[in-house]
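Here is the promised in-class demo. Please do not try to memorize the tokens; focus on the logic of going from shape to residues.
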């Protein structure tokens, strides 16, 4: 046995992670793939890596030092279970199996429980940063047992991205905690992308600027408080010209957004937990709306606003859009972190929210300067109930809210869809409201279903006898 770590599944993500591991001092990497050709190619193309190839699970296990540690990099789903079964067959108690795919956290909880019974450790690990990240430094979100972290931690620290001298990896929590956090990362990614897309659309329709000109706007924004990977690549995409037609590439791409499911999982899970992640939900639904051409086709005759959008001062409008984007982004991240907090409480994970924001500062898709502010907020108040109530964000929202309101109003009167901008503002105003019309909903529920209500002036649970003399009686609490 010569290798201290192994990788199973040598498609792009797996190969790149294996190469990243092999490039770090002290690592010898065993590699295995179901079809032999991928293994042969990788070993031939990267002699410098010193890979230890194997062509059966038995050989793979024999090439690993104990405790054997293997990272599975296959497409999430049934394939993952098949590989786990094989590794459990050839591994021994104390060994460590890591799933680096985008698994649903409830699958990870199930798998961890089953594998633990054999004495083998199972770690579900979120890996963010795409192909480049896997090769040069991803953001890593491992769950699993404390025992496995002892072996895994030092190895993962060497390959993770580095933010201000700190590796972007931390032990998130037990069993499915890592995949849960990765799921929410992707939900925030959806919201951030939708917000950027809405900003682009408003600027384009409002000012008539070309995609290349708007690329300059985003490039400039990337020097300020919005600095982030997603803003940076937005400028690149907008600047790209299609070689065939000479048009901006963005005008040639079909306007139907795909989705592999992690955004939907974030929303489904939030619904179960009762956490309002409205920005993430709107972003997910906006992708669904875009990708139903048959519905969009039949809606061609729907009436629009009488006046189209007119913008007098383009620069002022663009600055309003920037601040609306910043405010909505604060809401999206705040909602995401609230979901992690609620998930941790529900599943019994001890998740350090500040540490999560820190490991997202580099390597991952939502990497941004802004995450330092989130880390500060949790450092100051670790049990912060709503992230956006931290002083820095309150100050930012105060500064941005005028612009935010103007943009949402302008979009509405101009008939420009801005679901993420407007739902974020509605969420914010809902949070702020001293009284919500939820009181009326309680009245309606009590009317048709005797669902009862609480009073503001005394304890207890009450019901009005709506179909009799409408007097109020004390009732049992039915929620
Ligand atoms: C990452 C990305 C990565 C992947 C998503 C995209 O963190 O590296 O989030 O996981 O790009 O699968 O998701 P959609 O295909 O659903 O947009």
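The designed amino acids, position by position:
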């Amino acid at each position: 046995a010569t290798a201290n770590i192994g990788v199973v599944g040598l498609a792009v993500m797996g190969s790149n992670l294996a190469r990243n591991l092999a490039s770090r001092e002290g690592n010898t990497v065993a590699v295995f793939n179901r079809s032999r050709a991928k293994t042969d190619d990788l070993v031939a193309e990267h002699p410098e890596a010193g890979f230890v190839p194997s062509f059966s699970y038995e050989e793979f296990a024999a090439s690993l030092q104990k405790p054997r540690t293997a990272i599975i990099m296959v497409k999430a789903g049934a394939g993952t279970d098949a590989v786990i079964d094989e590794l459990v067959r050839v591994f021994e108690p104390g060994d460590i199996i890591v799933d680096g795919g985008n698994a649903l956290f409830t699958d990870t909880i199930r798998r961890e429980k089953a594998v633990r019974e054999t004495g083998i450790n199972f770690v579900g690990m979120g890996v963010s940063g795409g192909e480049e990240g896997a090769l040069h430094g991803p953001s890593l979100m491992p769950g699993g047992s404390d025992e496995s972290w002892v072996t895994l931690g030092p190895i993962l620290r060497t390959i993770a991205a580095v933010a201000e001298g700190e590796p972007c990896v931390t032990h998130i929590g037990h069993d499915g905690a890592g995949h849960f956090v990765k799921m929410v990362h992707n939900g925030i990614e959806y919201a951030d992308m939708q917000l950027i897309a809405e900003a682009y659309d408003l600027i384009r329709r409002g000012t008539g600027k070309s995609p290349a000109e708007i690329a300059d706007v985003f490039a400039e924004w990337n020097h300020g408080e919005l600095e982030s990977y997603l803003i940076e690549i937005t400028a690149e995409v907008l600047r790209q010209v299609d070689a065939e037609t000479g048009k901006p590439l963005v005008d040639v791409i079909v306007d139907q957004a795909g989705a592999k499911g992690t955004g939907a999982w974030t929303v489904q899970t939030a619904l179960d937990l009762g956490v309002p992640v409205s920005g993430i939900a709107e972003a997910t639904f906006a992708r669904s709306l875009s990708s139903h051409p048959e519905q969009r086709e039949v809606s061609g005759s729907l009436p629009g606003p009488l006046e189209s959008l007119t913008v007098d001062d383009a620069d002022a409008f663009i600055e309003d859009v920037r601040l609306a984007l910043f405010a909505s982004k604060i809401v999206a991240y705040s909602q995401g972190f609230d979901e992690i907090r609620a998930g941790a409480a529900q599943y019994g994970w001890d998740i350090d929210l500040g540490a999560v924001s820190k490991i997202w500062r580099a390597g991952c898709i939502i990497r941004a300067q802004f995450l330092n502010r989130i880390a500060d907020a949790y450092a100051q108040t670790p049990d912060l109930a709503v992230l956006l109530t931290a002083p820095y964000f309150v100050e930012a929202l105060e500064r941005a809210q005028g612009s935010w309101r103007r943009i949402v109003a302008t979009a509405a009167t101009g008939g420009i869809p801005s679901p993420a901008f407007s739902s974020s503002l509605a969420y914010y105003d809902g949070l702020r409201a001293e009284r919500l019309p939820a009181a009326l909903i309680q009245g309606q529920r009590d009317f048709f279903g005797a669902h009862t209500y609480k009073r503001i002036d005394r304890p207890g649970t009450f019901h009005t006898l709506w179909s009799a003399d409408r007097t109020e009686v004390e009732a049992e609490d039915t929620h």
